[in-house]
Structures are given as structure tokens and as C-alpha cells.
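To whoever is covering the structure queue this week,

Two jobs came back overnight. Logging them here so there's a record in the thread.

Job A:
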Amino acid sequence: MVFLSLSGAVLAGGKGERMASQDKGLLLFRGEVMALSVGLALRQVTDCVFINANRNSERYADLGFEVIADDHFYQDKGPLSGLAACLTFAKTSHLLVSPCDTPCISGDAFTKLIFASNAFPDRIHYLSDAFGSHPLHAILPVEPALIMLKDFLDKSERHSVMAFYEVFGCESVLWDKSEELLNVNTPDVLS
């Protein structure tokens, strides 16, 4: 078995367009800040957890995590901007990522990704369930993914996470607890 060194990143760099431009990661879900819920789940599997955010960085830092922003060179390329920033910042062999608006995610889900990555450490692994793919719940090999992502962003007009994963080489990992993958990105789901 390969030994992976792990860090974890909460992706909170979006514009919150479906949430009336509110910073989703700082909103409360069941009484807890969503980014904190995700960060604590990541902390179940790694001590090195940080948040990728492009606004309200002081408020995110108050949650107890280091905060990094997107590199200006790769801004406005959707979630791939955040992935590029996180891969650049990570000092480990592998990086776990999770979006800030999935506050029900558990450490067990990340453990399953780690197990898959131990078997095939050179590939990107992401969660899927009966309803589809969840590419932002993923584990990536840091150095090769960063090299290929920079090249992908420089050459591609498509800023699709799955398009990048397919170019790199990826595998889905079935997670049958769909309730943990609840995406809280509109006000009606939040309430």
C-alpha cells in the first residue's frame, strides 16, 4: 500500500449566484456555519485543512482555518480556479477537496476516497451516488494534477471540472449515503 500524505481544502470561492450573491460557506445550516461543517469533516482524516475563499477571508479565518484566495492569473474559471489555488498551496502528496455548500458530508466519505487513492494514487477519484457525479468531492495527486491543470487552463476554452478530470485520468467512487451529498446552494434548501 502507498502512503499518502494528505491535506484538505474547503472550496468556498464561488460567487453564490444562486444564493442571492451571499457567501454560501458562511451561511448557517442546522445551526452551524457550512464551511465549518465541511472543514471539521475533513479534519477527521487530516490535520492540515484550509479554506479557499475570495471574499470574507477574515470571517473564514475566524473558523480556525488558514484561508487562501484564487491566483489572479486563473480567476473566473469557475471551480477550477479554486482547485488550482488549492493544489498550489498544498504541501502534501494528495489533496482532498470538498465544496462549502455540502455541510452533511462525513469523514467516512473522505476515508472511502483515500482508500481508492491508495489503490491507484496516480488518478483523481471523486464521489458519485445514484443521482450522479460529485466531482468537487475528490482526492487529487497534487504535483501531477497541478502541472496538468495549469496546462489545461492555459489551452482549454472549457472550464469544466469533469473535462479536466477526464484528461487527467479519473475514477468515480460510489458513496451510497446520498443525504451526505446534499448541495445547499439555494435559499429554499437552506431553510
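Job B:
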Amino acid sequence: MKKRSMRGLAAALVLAMALPVTAFGAETVQVNGYDRREGEAVQDQLSISNVTGKTTVAGKEAYVCQAPAKVTAVDELQTFEVTKYLSAGNALAAQGVMLPDGYTQESWDALYFESEGEAVVKVGTTYTIKEPGIYRALGMYPAIAGGAEVYLVVEGNGQTAASLTKPQ
């Protein structure tokens, strides 16, 4: 009897390790758009909350997140946007750009209009993604300095990464 319960316990542990990470295992990930060289310190551009794993969508690596997921600027940026996408087989079709928390379209546009190519997005500017879907977060520095581009698959309301990345 003892051997049977030990086998059952071992099988349960193996099964539990094979299951996807739940929201209890969610973490915040820092994103840097630059390749780091050994010993080189480079500032991260973005922070993403509620990350539970990784997947691939239309050939691009993406973080899997639980809604609500927050994308936050952790450095001053020239461009910071989150765009919702729809899976279209091997491609993604843009569905619309979101507004950051606390901004109207007019105040966000005015920020960029007055920037004259300088960094305008302040540290702490946040997008809260509440709806399941595929998103692209972009955090760029002025001119050709580069930045970060990252894809997110946000799960919620019974929708999983597998159902969200299936071509529509």
C-alpha cells in the first residue's frame, strides 16, 4: 500500500511540474532591446507584470501574461506604445494603438508634438492591458539610439495563449 501511494505522489508531482505556470507564479520581467555584452550595464526600457511564461506567435517570441498586465517605462523614452494585434497565420494584423493610463488622445498627441525629437515619456508611464489578446510593446529612445520591442500574449476570461495565437 505504501509503494502505491508513493508512486501516486511521484506521478502527481511530475504532472504538476508539466502544467503551465499559474497566476501564483507570475513575475515582473524587465526588457532591454540591446544585446548585453559581458560586464556591460545597460538600462532596461520596459517592465512587464504578470508574466507566466513564453510562447511563439507568428514566428516571434512572446511573453505570456495574465490579465491585467502592466507595461511600464523604466527609463525616459521618445516612443512608448502598446498596440493590439490579431493572429493571422504567420503574420500579425494591427488592431489599434492603446493610450497609456491617465492620458487622453489629445494629451498624448500634445506630448509628442512638443517633443522635437527628445525623450518625452517619463519613467513610470504605464499601460494596463485588461483584455485578453496579442499585443506589441515598443519603447524607443530618440533618433537611432534604439530600444525595446516585445510581444505579449495576455490570457484571461477563459482565453489561453493557445486559443489567442490560433489564426483567426
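Note for Job B: The chain has three helices and nine strands.

Please reply-all if you pick these up so we don't duplicate work.
Q.
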